[in-house]
């Protein structure tokens, strides 16, 4: 069974989806981490982010290992660094790159061929796994998402201004929704859940309920 959880940046997809997968006994695929890993690798190699051929070349040559809850790029643990503001800003160059997306989508589809899977991202239910048995669109208001992002950065020792994060997030929402390849949009058959005012535990339980309801109906 494949469960896709799509939604905008800052909706809490990664942490929530990981816990949902653990409780269901499913594998977890953090596709956002894959695009971040590509951006991190480009920055680490001091390559040109705005050159599409360069970014595509880096993506095709690096090894991304998401096992064990960590993100290893060519054997280097980049789990924390890919969440830094610099990488967050740079990730759009990987996400909007046609060749990069084609390569990573193929890797994602391979990952889901023989496993019960919870996968999160922007286009999992629309592009990568259009025939997934359960699709969820997880969202929250821009203000709530910005507050969560500031709090998350604080736990990592990174200071950020709320207004700056909100502006960056709004720009990213526009870019994600308007790009020609793999745009952010809700699948027609997805269940939408707005998490404003909900605790993480409430969100997790609601998502598990949605999956179980869908599994019973199969």
UniProtKB/TrEMBL annotation:
EC class (word): transferase
GO molecular function: ATP binding; dCMP kinase activity
Highest taxon of source: Bacteria
Keyword Kinase belongs to the record: yes
One BP annotation, GO: nucleobase-containing small molecule interconversion
This protein's name: Cytidylate kinase
Region (Disordered): 165-184
